[in-house]
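Annotated sample (chain length 251).
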Amino acid sequence: MPSGYYDPSRSKHHANWVWHTKSHNCATLSDASQLMQSHDSVGAVVNAFEDDRLVYFSGRADGSYPGRAVRYRRHVTIDKMTNGFLMIDEHVAPPRVYSALQWNIHSWNEIEKCDEDRTFRIEREGCGLTGTFLCHEDSFFVMREGWDPPPTPTKSTLQWYPQYHLRFSPTVIGSERYLGILLQPRRLCDPMMDVDRWREEDGREAAALGTSTYTIDLPGDPAGSIARLSVDDQSYVIDDDGIHKAESDRR
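Output written by the structure step:
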């Protein structure tokens, strides 16, 4: 989310806020943002797929975190049966490099969080967004508001509407990680489905929303899969080539 207030391009506010972590970046690696003002920082949306049950696409930003990641990809699935969004961030670091994966979100309205349930909630003008992280290991939220650094006071501060920021990060740093989150947008007048989340014995994170289930695989899975989904009794696999119906359940 841009700050909405643009100082000159070489000011500290523009360089360190508008371009940097707490304003634009959805994910940071040990506070390192995407490469700024460089043609090397490129990305692509690939492997788009849609059927009667879901929509899927993947965003690739492999070249945008130099020195921190050789692969950074966000896999997004929209479940038409539940109106839920499953997002999986995939991070692979260069050899002997370890980073904390930090997931960021920004809002004009205050954000509520629950450390125990690994959830956050935002409400605005009759609508709401609830996020549930599929992460049972030690992790933490960081919340703040405002700008760092703020714009220069060339205009009345009455125009500076409040801004709120939330960051979620697993405590243990590493070289590979899949981090999943379920996002549930809704009108506040509509009921919200409960999320049931658990951790499999082998360490895989899983969740159920309505009749849909989602399982996040571990990095280095022999089959190369990133996640496995069941939506309306149809099984899907997410891998490097996108999403496809499971071989044993194609229909």
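Annotation: The chain has a mean pLDDT of 89.
Annotation: The longest strand covers residues 176-187.
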